[in-house]
Amino acid sequence: MKATLSSTCNYRIHYKETGAVWKLSSLFLQHIPFDTHEIIFFCIGTDRSTGDALGPLAGSLLSESPLFPFPVIGTLENPLHALNLQQHINQTQLDNPSAFIVAIDACLGQGTSIGQLILHSGPIHPGKAVGKELPPVGDLSIKGVVNIAGFMEHAVLQSTRLHLSFEMSRIVARALQLAYSRHKS
Questions:
Q1: CA nearest 131: which of 152, 147, 146, 117?
Q2: For the domain that residue 170 is a member of, what is the CATH number?
């Protein structure tokens, strides 16, 4: 049986907000079933675009942590991107069809939303900002708004500061690690 969230959620926290890691970890504790399902993290993006590196950066930080025991698909070394996403979805459905998938990806939005981390129940639609038709993925989605949508999205992602993607991914990874640590204690 596929895991589902008990209630819908849609939260936004700016990565520079005071207490962002603690606040996000509290939300993760409420919405990630740490003790009832196998959890797999899909960290979507590529290391070839600074704006689209948020997912692989978070994936690398999580997979390198000895205190984070969950499978992570998508790192800087082995990115999860448009060319291999369907393959990983299919393999996960074969190996563990009841796994709870947390999808992490960068996205584009309004100028006033840059730096926001968005947590919502349901799948991410990767590639949507750049007009790609990719399969939706995730039971819970974590998106980071890295730049402005609306015009020349490929160029916008390429010209996004790596510092922003890195800092946002670091907040996400730290919050997930803290949530799991708080869950265990």
A1: 152
A2: 3.40.50.1450
Angle at 68 between CA 164 and CA 100, to 5 degrees: 90
Task: Write the CA distances from 7 to 120, 122, 148, 183, integer angstroms.
Answer: 10, 11, 30, 19
**Mean pLDDT computed over 58-77:** 96
145 - beta bridge partners? 107
d(CA 73, CA 154): 24
Residue 111: inside a domain, yes or no? Answer: yes
Tokens read off for 121: 């129940």
At 153 the pLDDT is 81
Secondary structure letter of residue 108 according to DSSP: E
In 10 A of CB 29, how many CB atoms? 15
Please check the confidence at residue 5 and state whether its pLDDT lies above 50.
Answer: no
| Domain span holding position 45 | 10-184
